[in-house]
Amino acid sequence: MNKLKIALAQIKTDRNYKINLEKIIDFMQKAKSFGAELVVFPETSQAFVPSNEGINFNTIAQNIDEEFATSIINKSKELNIAVVFGFYEKDNEKTKNSVIFADCGKIIHKYSKTHLYDAFSYDESKDINASNEKIKAFDTKWGKMGIMVCYELRFPEIARTLALDGARLVLVPTAWVDGKYKDEHFMLLTKTRALENTIYLCASNQTGNIYTGRSCLINPLGLEEIKLGVDEGIQIFEIDFNKIDEVRKALPCISQRKPNLYSL
Description:
Layout: E1 3-10, H1 17-33, E2 38-40, H2 67-79, E3 82-91, E4 94-103, E5 106-112, E6 128-129, E7 138-140, E8 143-147, H3 156-164, E9 169-174, H4 182-197, E10 200-205, E11 207-208, E12 211-212, E13 216-218, E14 224-227, E15 233-240, H5 242-250
Helix pairs in contact: 1-2, 3-4
């Protein structure tokens, strides 16, 4: 399939996962009513966990077969829609920051964050286990896609690896923490990752609490097709993957690479 109607959902999360679950289900229904085939939610959509309160993340985390994930996956089957969402997944004494891609009730791919946000005085690795899984694209009925999470936008190797593995769309659930220059960083990084790889990139961000909002869908020329502000909301866009071929004919930087010159 060379076209995909995608819905980009931006939400503010509550501490109570049941409130967030209800909101996600509602947004899924809205996306379906707008004709979307895939709806993308932010990183850690399950719950807002203040970093300064010493909360044990493992008391909040759930297994993939518990209520939060299974409810969303079952709803995707009921609505005949694909969904991407982030949650805190139990992992022994700690937790993984995981993302699921489910299509019509079937889990197509699960990715757990590999590069943790230990920067700007934040220490994600204190509570979260980093995954060591290989970066790779995965198959969908719309072609290959990839997933990266939030802080991983700062690592160009991840998006490049996904693009070289055939991903035409990279999905980036985020919970981008506000702060000096952080808005500018988010806009620059999302556009750059799309442009340098001549792919589509969809970044669904949390808003409110400590987060910046401004979720976006970027096309292969680095231009915004969707740009949300700081309010909760949902927007739809029809991706035409043929545009990637058109852009790469004019801008063939992927095929012009000389990897034999880049090794350190």
